[in-house]
Structure formats: C-alpha cells, structure tokens
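The protein record filed here:
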Amino acid sequence: MGIRGGARKYIIDLLNIYGSGVECVHLSQYRGKRIIIDWANIAHRFICRSRNIQDFINEFINLIHKFARERIELIFIFDGKPRDEKIQTIEYRKSTRIKILDKIVDIIENVQEPEEDYEKIMHLARRVRNINIKHITECKKLFKMLGVKYIHLQDIEADAIFKCLLEHGIADICFSGDMDILAYGCKRIIQDLNFRDDTIIEINTDMLITYLQVSQEQLLMAFILSGTDWNNGLKNSNFEKNLKLIKKYQHIDSILEHLEEINNDLPNDKQIIVPNRFDWQFAIDLFSENIQNEIIMQIQSILEQQKIDAEMQNNPNGFKTFIEYGKHILEYDKTSKYIKKFQQCIYWKYSFNLNLYKTPLLTAKTNYS
C-alpha cells in the first residue's frame, strides 16, 4: 500500500517538468551501476500477469536479461517479518482481498454478459493473487543459478535495507514502485519499467525536494499526513493539500495547533479531521531509523559469500548445470524464448560479473539456441 493520499500520482505527474527531478530515461543510462530491487513489489506485478509458476519465473528472467544487457548488477531485497505495528495494515489488505473474492462470487452467481463478466472475473482474480513460499524459493534458486545477489533478513523489512545499502555505497540506485522509498530518504529511485522500450522513470530526491521547496523532513511529514503503513492520513485531505499545509506551517505540530483556524475556511463536509491511529512521531522515528552496524556487516558478509559461490561455479560443469536448470524450469516454454534469455543471462554473468571475456567457455555463446 505504501504512501497514500495520491502522493504517487502527484509526483509522477511532475514527469519531464524541468528541474522537478522526475524524468523518463532509457535503461542504458545505468550501465555499470548496482541497482537494488524491491522483490515483493515487482513480484506482485508479475504474479498478476502469470498463469503459473513457470510464467512467473519467465518474467524474472526477462527482467534480469534486460538489466544484464546493460551490464547492470542487481541485488534483490526480500521482505522479512513485518513489525507488530503493521498488523492493522496487513489486516486491512486481507479484508480487501475478501471483498474482492465476494465480488467475484456475486458476478458468478448473477452472470448477465458471459464474455464481459469473464473479463471482470479475471481482472479481479489477478488482484487477489498473493505471494507464497514457492514464489520465493523458485526465485532464490534462479538467482543462485544466474549469480544474481539477494538479501533476505528474516526480521527486517526490505524498505529499511534500501537506504542503508545506498548510504554505504553497496548500491547506487533502488528500484521500487512504492513511495515509501522516498519517505526513507533514498536519493535515487527508479520505477515503472516499460518492458517494450526499456525506459524507466527516475526520481532524484534532492532535485525533487528543491523543486517542491521543502526539506527532506517536511516531505516525510507530508507523506505521514497523507497516510502510511504505520498511520492513517488526515481525513478530507490528500498529499497535495498536505504538502501546502507543511509549506505554510512548517511542521505537523504546528498544523495540529492551527487545525481549527484551517477548518474555519472550509465547508463542514470538507473540514480536515485527525484520524484514529495517528502516531505521527512514531512514523517519523521509524522512517528515520538507521540499521545497526552489525546488520550492515551481516549484509556485506552475505553478498561476499554469494560472490564466492558464483565464482565457484566458474567451470565447465557449472556452466552445464546452468543450461540444464534453464531447460528444466522452462520446460513449458514452447518457443524457447526464455530459455535463450536464460542462457544469455549466463553469458552476461560470466563476461561481466566474473570478467571472463576471453575464456574458451564463452566461445560457444553463439550456439546456445
């Protein structure tokens, strides 16, 4: 769910406005960079358009292949166990899925236009598909085969890891469709990859806050006023209005102190109301929280071990194993489209990650198909 109140639409609408910090660029702009990816965010997108686990894995092969062609190193970040304070948000999401399932049942029991109703059912069904353990385990297997790095810390959510990896130089950019990343203060964010023309939207946080004429802390406060996974947003308000309030009153404390005055200029049905579950100070503390040094060391150790594991596969037998895995997991790929992409990913792994440009192993790359 992330940041609410229309925050994402407001920021994406700044696309290509000079100096806004939001622009559409080609993937080649990130050649040689290290990009961290919100696995759950992209996985939900892939689940919605996949018929089975093979389709789901194919989507990841396609994604990895696109980045590999540009010699971009990827690090996928999996979500750990959510904090107790997020339970209400999780329960809300469950109730939303139940409502959608009830709507599907209602359509099935009252079919009027079979073809049109079928399309409605399929659209709704995609919205209630959820990540399960098989999606996670099969992706990890794929990543290990391709030498793609990933982090999965059981007690830490992905959002908290992004800022840490950027600040410590472990990665250059983060890829996520959630605006939570902006709230955490990540400096360079990409999202909305167009799979046809390989373009992507980049948000430069420093340029964005300069354009909006706020500080990073004030932008965070506007997000909190709009609603996050940790608090509800002001009723009868949205991100655009909240941003104006922050720019005028500078701080949430001051807005709450002047709320009666603010509402004096509004009709009764438009007056701003402070919701239940509005511990804004807790939200600020959480988004500003830094990961402990021992966790950073653990992350570095995991990535180093994955690098060693990938290098150990640097032999003809390892290469043959990769090919056989590709044929096995994609046995339903009748056109061999994704088998070829899988094999090309292996080539890029060897030539880029392991610097094996001139090894005899790669001379057969033209015979992959």
